[in-house]
Specification:
- The chain is an alpha+beta fold.
- It has 2 domains: about 15-240, Rossmann fold, CATH 3.40.50; about 240-330, no CATH class.
- Helices cover about 20% and strands about 25% of the residues.
- It has 8 helices and 16 strands.
- It has helices at about 5-15, 25-30, 55-60, 100-105, 110-115, 130-140, 150-160, 180-185; strands at about 40-45, 70-75, 95, 120, 140-145, 165-170, 190, 195-200, 215, 220-230, 260-265, 280, 295-300, 315, 320, 325-330.
- Strands 1, 2, 3, 4, 5, 6, 7, 8, 9 and 10 form a 10-stranded mixed β-sheet that branches. It has a 4-stranded mixed β-sheet with strand order 11-12-16-13. It has a two-stranded antiparallel sheet with strand order 14-15.
- Helix 7 (about 150-160) links the parallel strand 5 and strand 6.
- The longest helix has 12 residues, at about 5-15.
- The protein is elongated, with a radius of gyration of 22 Å.
- The relative contact order is 0.11.
- Bound molecules: S-adenosylmethionine.
- S-adenosylmethionine binds near residues 18 and 22.
- The site of S-adenosylmethionine (SAM) has 21 residues, from helix 3.
Length: about 325
């Protein structure tokens, strides 16, 4: 229940941050790494308007190449990438397809093709947690989408509750949330291949910004994030590769923290090969990390966020950016 102006403002802000739409190229670049894992699978894109989502478009165009069994895309009634008059009331949409005729697809526009697939209206608003959308989730093998950032915790919890495979976009800060971190620590989820800078389409009514905002030649507004991530429990190659370490431990290069017995490692490339204790490394370790080589012992953020947040990372009184705490497996 929203009870004051501040909360209304915060809520409006977080909902605005939910309206980042993923372009086809970003999806393709990541998804091609997992092609084999999609064979004969039912894919659900559950925050995706079939008329406008490039996740849906990607799987339609790659349905046969990926040998999918079925694709389901459901959308939330309030999606607002375009002023599209497809959003006529408060009901969501569902597209379900188990066969794509390549010839038909290549001889028509995408818009016409989607029309021919007879997208249905849902009974409700298409909330991913609603009963009818959870029924789709139960049917699915793999969930692939960019969910609303403000609901990331709930979204991931729902996927784990239903024991689903997933490949979803989030903000890397979410890694240290108490609802997410235990999955990372216990090797139940990890990062995909492309993380960091990512560009997203934003709605027509998005306010211009000084940085990380532009309008392309078609009039489409864009924003980029520097800390986006693909979050997944599909297998990724780097988890099976040993990281080569070239540095030796040096107290100057790897200073100790004020209130915790751990050393700071400013760059992943500086991880010492000969240190047996706890090392505090940047979050970017997570797309290089091999669970047979290192264990994750916790995080260092504020020292109080959750049971895994072991200390506030300060060195000689100066606070540094949050860290993941790792230890070599002996
Ligand atoms: C970050 S955008 C991404 C949209 C699309 N997946 C893409 O990547 O282009 C998240 C979308 O989820 C929608 N959404 C918000 N709350 C939702 C909910 N409870 N259930 C399903 N979708 C929701 C938003 O309206 C928005 O369209």
């Amino acid at each position: 229940m929203l009870n004051n102006t501040n909360t209304y403002l915060q809520s409006a802000k977080s909902t605005k941050n939910d309206e980042f739409y993923t372009p086809f190229e970003e999806i393709e670049k990541e998804l091609i790494n997992y092609q084999d894992q999609f064979s004969d699978k039912i894919v659900l894109c559950n925050c995706d308007n079939p008329h406008e989502s490039d996740f849906c478009r990607f799987f339609i165009y790659n349905f046969n190449r990926f040998n999918l069994k079925k694709l389901i895309c459901t959308s939330y009634s309030k999606s607002k990438l375009t002023k599209s008059n497809t959003q006529v009331d408060d009901k969501g949409y569902a597209l379900q397809v188990d066969k794509i005729e390549e010839e038909k697809l290549s001889n028509t526009t995408y818009k016409e093709f989607i029309k021919s697939l007879k997208v249905k209206r849902l009974k409700g608003n298409g909330d991913f947690a609603s009963e009818e959308c959870v029924a789709f989730l139960t049917e699915a093998d793999i969930v692939v989408t960019n969910p609303p950032f403000s609901l990331f915790r709930q979204f991931i919890s729902l996927l784990f509750f239903h024991r689903k495979k997933f490949l979803v976009i989030g903000n890397m800060n979410a890694i240290t949330y108490k609802e997410i971190f235990p999955y990372v620590q216990n090797n139940k989820a990890w990062l995909g291949y492309h993380n960091g800078d990512m560009a997203f389409k934003v709605p027509v009514d998005s306010e211009p910004r000084k940085t990380r905002f532009w309008i392309d030649e078609t009039g489409q507004k864009w924003r980029s994030l520097g800390n986006a991530m693909w979050f997944t429990n599909l297998d990724v190659a780097y988890r099976h590769r040993f990281m080569e370490l070239h540095e030796k431990y040096s107290p100057d290069k790897h200073p100790r923290f004020d209130y915790y017995d751990a050393i700071n490692v400013s760059r992943v490339a500086d991880i010492p090969m000969d240190y047996e204790g706890v090392m505090a490394v940047p979050l970017t370790i997570l797309n290089k990390y091999n669970p047979d080589q290192f264990e994750i012992v916790g995080e260092a953020n504020h020292g109080s966020d959750n049971p895994y947040d072991l200390f506030k990372p300060t060195i000689n009184g100066k606070e540094i950016f949050k860290r993941i705490l790792i230890k070599k497996r002996l």
